[in-house]
Amino acid sequence: MASKIRKSVLVSLSSHQDVYLSGQQLADEAGCSRTAIWKHIEELRNEGFTIESRRKKGYRLVGRSDQLTENDILLGLETKTFGRNVVYFDSVDSTQKIAHQLAQDQAPEGTLVIAEEQKTGRGRMARAWYSPSGTGIWMSVLLRPTLPPQKAPQFTLITAVAVVQAIQDVCDIQVEIKWPNDILVNNRKITGILTELQADSEQIHSLIIGIGMNVNQQTDDFPEELLDIATSLSIAKGEIISRAKVVQHVMFHLERYYKIYMEKGFAPIKLLWESYALSIGKHITARTMNGTLTGIALGITDEGVLLLEDENGTIHQIYSADIEW
Ligand code: BTN
């Protein structure tokens, strides 16, 4: 956890990017001694912030490296609660697993668990999720909506809309959603979403939304088996992308759409989701646990369930599947 003093120093330096602030000024703003400021400046440098110091002038924030520590995320975050409590790991088995534990330990809503690397990242349908160090975003957000458990799948769709808008804000590239949880660029996956819950038959106790985003991988960074199906924001945009900025924008839109959803229901989100969805109106193949169905994807229900009309005109409700077209 970053200390209050370190946060205060960062906020002061970043709000005066072009001027030097003296140690005394920083100390006054943080309510500590000048010696403490010196120590915290060193800590911030270790976290990847480039801070210039000049004798008789003081300190100036020059830049930051592409890291995802608590301070990297907090600096520039425009939310009330989402992502305000950050639990960061250099390496972890799965952020989902940690978030489940934190949910039981009464961590606040909006808690963000994020890791530079996951050893056993997990995807949908018990698949492994490749989560190497340094290039992606592997994070889980803890929510506590007072809703029945049948509503949980809608959160995958709310999250997909938030991620699409965050990508558009930061990268300005065209992305599309493939039901239920894939975000694609040029038909290749850049983001997967995994919604898990702790609930009884009546009510959700906590929702854990896992988001895996390929951000700065280059083609050589993907293992052979993913080369044809995955890509990254950096490949699509042709430049290195700030991961912290992407996280901040995802948190911002997720908080916004969560609020809209809790106040107005699923209808406004559904409209947006359908406007980004690739598969609607297409002839698709859906591979479910119980077999394969083919037909036209008509749309989604208010519960986020996919409607598929087969060649006999029968409409099937699909809760979970891999789809192709
Ligand atoms: C999928 O498309 O199958 C969903 C992938 C979800 C991956 C993310 S990465 C962060 C979080 N921790 C995990 O172990 N999984 C999710």
UniProtKB/TrEMBL annotation:
Q: Which SUPFAM superfamilies match?
A: C-terminal domain of transcriptional repressors, Class II aaRS and biotin synthetases, Winged helix' DNA-binding domain
Q: Does the keyword Transport apply?
A: no
Instruction: Tell me if Transcription is a UniProt keyword of this record.
Output: yes
Its UniProt entry gives the catalysed reaction(s) as: biotin + L-lysyl-[protein] + ATP = N(6)-biotinyl-L-lysyl-[protein] + AMP + diphosphate + H(+)
Q: Which is one GO molecular function term here?
A: biotin--[biotin carboxyl-carrier protein] ligase activity
Group of enzyme by EC: ligase
- According to its UniProt record, the EC number is 6.3.4.15
Keywords, in A-Z order: ATP-binding, Biotin, DNA-binding, Ligase, Nucleotide-binding, Repressor, Transcription, Transcription regulation
Query: InterPro entries this protein is in?
Result: aa-tRNA-synth_II/BPL/LPL, ArsR-like_HTH, Bifunct_BirA, Biotin_CoA_COase_ligase, BPL_C, BPL_LPL_catalytic, HTH_11, Transcriptional_repressor_C
Which superkingdom? Bacteria
- Binding residues annotated for biotin, in chain numbering: Q118, R122, G123, R124, K189
Q: Kindly indicate which segments of the sequence are annotated as binding DNA.
A: 23-42
Residue ranges of every copy of the BPL/LPL catalytic domain listed in the record: 68-262
PROSITE patterns xref list:
BPL_LPL_CATALYTIC (PS51733)
Main function: Acts both as a biotin--[acetyl-CoA-carboxylase] ligase and a repressor.
Record family assignment: Belongs to the biotin--protein ligase family.
- Could you tell me which HAMAP family the record lists for this protein? Bifunct_BirA
Which PANTHER family does the entry link to?
BIOTIN PROTEIN LIGASE, BIOTIN--PROTEIN LIGASE
Q: What NCBIfam families has UniProt attached to this entry? A: birA_ligase
Protein's name in the database: Bifunctional ligase/repressor BirA
Q: Which organism is it from?
A: Jeotgalibacillus marinus
By which gene is this protein encoded? birA
